[in-house]
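Appendix B. One record, verbatim.
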Amino acid sequence: MPISSRSLHCRLCLAPAEVFFKGRHGEYFECSVCRGVFLSPEYHLDAEAERARYEAHNNDVTDAGYQAFVSPVINYVRRSYDTNALGLDFGCGPGPAISHVLRNAGYRLELYDPFFCNEEAVLKIKYDYIVCCEVIEHYRSPAEEFRRLRSYLKPGGQLICMTDLLTDDTDFPNWYYKDDPTHVFFYRDETVEYISLEFGFAGRATDGRVTVFHNH
């Protein structure tokens, strides 16, 4: 049943959050501190429906349009690292296009996805960089996820995330990004800054849809 209360605790920082928008996927709340916006948990899909949604995406790693879509992450890795570095494609999904392109260029990447590549052994390794492309908006418990992602990085490593940031100019009722029912947490610039400070990163930088967190 839908909640009757008009406030919840933020899924990231636990501060009070108030109703921000009600739509066909449920009620969204905005945090009073980190300004993240999240879908109330009772509207989250179950695991079977969530997996089915991911399988319905374009998952052809050789598709030129798909490769172009993820190219901001690929290009960042190629500018920042050589083929000696070890990367992790975290949340790679059923079609890991980033790893496909980078591996073909001689890069070394491990794959992890809770639905499609659930190999816990790769989470016991430290990485020079981690890519999370169209992943962090799916986090139901973002604090837990960012804390553990940082723990997988080597000193000086980078967490490279691609997602659409929410801005004050975003027309949320008509925003395409919220219409994917698996997108349950949306980040503003203030939210990204909160993550950088709260979870012990040395800093962060955002360029378009790519945000990079730098480890100490």
